[in-house]
Design a protein that fits this description.
By secondary structure, the protein is α+β, with helices and mostly antiparallel strands. The chain folds into two domains: 106 residues, Aminopeptidase; 83 residues, Gcn5-related N-acetyltransferase (GNAT) (Aminopeptidase, 3-Layer(aba) Sandwich). The protein has a seven-stranded mixed sheet, sandwiched between helices. Strands 6-7-8 form a three-stranded antiparallel sheet, covered by helices on one side. Strand 3, helix 3 and strand 4 form a beta-alpha-beta unit.
């Protein structure tokens, strides 16, 4: 068994914990992959050179952190217990923390709507970015890349895009947004059900990562049966302390 396959088998033993790392690994170029005792470090590229760490052991995390240099800046899907170890070593440019929810296989969901859905167009990336509340953490180029490479869906009326959603580089359902003028029409529900159905057709476990203050999206996810897994964070390092 080669090293990559061995690591995949190991990570899949705790699939939900490692879901972001695994799906990122399967859908983006990987520059570095190594298992250190019971921990795994992955470096891969989407919009940035991202680093994922799977670990349960503080001593192993310390070994991993010792190996980083000034080129290692962007970190993804870090568990909350890891953050103090980063914060004790580096100043942060930014941190984005979210709650991960996943949809168990046994919960049946089928899209039921006459509302027409279409794939987003790359040319709409700027429009979507303009309406984003998370411009610090994303970019037009990233959104364009995800529209071109991933699953996406939009609802329009009279040529105007009113609601949209797409998958991130780890295949999480995200960027769900409905224009204020188009709310209370069930568009968020329609788009979420569509994405769940399409992801399951591809054998992908649907999951979302929602900032805690977005209570409307959390309620929507919980209504469909998504279950809370854990708190995860993305961060960009600024400098060493």
């Amino acid at each position: 068994m080669n090293q990559k396959l061995e690591i995949l088998v190991y990570l899949k033993k705790d699939l939900i914990k490692n879901i972001s790392l695994l799906y990122f690994m399967q859908n983006n170029p990987v520059r570095y992959l190594k298992k250190i005792k019971n921990s795994v470090i992955l470096k891969g590229t989407s919009d940035q050179d991202w680093i994922f760490i799977s670990s349960n052991q503080p001593d192993e995390l310390e070994i991993i952190l010792d190996s980083f240099d000034q080129t290692d800046k962007y970190f993804a899907s870090l568990e909350s217990w890891m953050l103090p170890y980063f914060q004790s070593r580096w100043e942060m440019e930014w941190i984005l923390t979210a709650n991960r929810y996943y949809l168990p296989d046994e919960i049946a969901i089928e899209p039921q709507s006459d509302i027409q859905i279409r794939k987003l167009r790359a040319a709409e990336a700027s429009y979507i970015y303009h309406h984003s509340e998370y411009q610090t953490y994303t970019s037009v180029d990233y959104l364009k890349m995800r529209i071109e490479k991933g699953l996406s869906a939009g609802i329009e009326e009279n040529g105007e895009l009113l609601a949209w959603v797409l998958t991130h580089d780890d295949l999480a359902i995200g960027t769900l947004h409905v224009l204020e003028s188009a709310r209370r029409k069930g568009f968020a529900t329609v788009l979420t059900l569509y994405m769940v159905s399409e992801l399951r057709k591809q054998g992908i476990i649907p999951f979302v990562q929602i900032v805690p203050e977005n209570t409307a999206s959390i309620r929507l996810a919980e209504r469909f049966g998504f279950r809370f897994d854990r708190e995860v964070s993305w961060l960009a390092l600024k400098s060493k302390k």
